[in-house]
Amino acid sequence: xxxxxxxxxxxxxxxxxxxxxxxxxxxxxxxxxxxxxxxxxxxxxxxxxxxxxxxxxxxxxxxxxxxxxxxxxxxxxxxxxxxxxxxxxxxxxxxxxxxxxxxxxxxxxxxxxxxxxxxxxxxxxxxxxxxxxxxxxxxxxxxxxxxxxxxxxxxxxxxxxxxxxxxxxxxxxxxxxxxxxxxxxxxxxxxxxxxxxxxxxxxxxxxxxxxxxxxxxxxxxxxxxxxxxxxxxxxxxxxxxxxxxxxxxxxxxxxxxxxxx
Length: 261
What we know:
Blueprint: E1 2-8, E2 16-19, E3 30-35, E4 38-51, E5 63-66, H1 69-96, E6 101-107, E7 113-119, H2 127-137, E8 140-145, H3 148-155, H4 166-169, H5 179-184, H6 191-194, H7 209-217, E9 225-228, E10 231-239, E11 244-249
Parallel strand pairs: 7-8
Antiparallel strand pairs: 1-2, 1-4, 3-4, 3-5, 6-7, 9-10, 10-11
């Protein structure tokens, strides 16, 4: 059995398991962990627990130590380096006329690598830009092109509901979203009403689709004749949440009787 703790490198990032051996850790503690790219600063997200070593497909890396004051100073230094690198790179993107949207720069904890995140409509030849960045900063440079949804997650913002974007506040993994989900919930299919800041279908369309699917199985379908208010008519539409249907009586008027259980 091995003592394992779950940590996050970003506030809403994926949770990774690390071996914490004899360390006594609580949720919210800052720790220094070993990664494939060197040491990293992370936050404990799930409390320590014991698990079978055989259940892990790959050997777990370990928690190196608890973070101290020098580590927080290093993080502050990295943030300042990121701001400087962003401004410098943006300037040369304009000078080179590259059609790319730079939106974030991240430094690894040890400060020997910078990753530039950008979006673009197609492939970009950024070889000349990388040469300029390497000459300026004298460290490893990585250019990473990501999708528009990842940009929204990393940048954050306020959605049409007035709350912080789901992807930047609690969603750690994107799930497939389809127009069928909007149809299942009886929502307007106007793209401006069901699209998020990223321009893609809103992630929240997946939250209640299973509930609507379950309710629809027991809900009256449109078409059949029913008796409503002593008059016979045809069901033309239904409202699942209010448990009611719209009936078109044979005399031409419309009623909205609630369904009885």
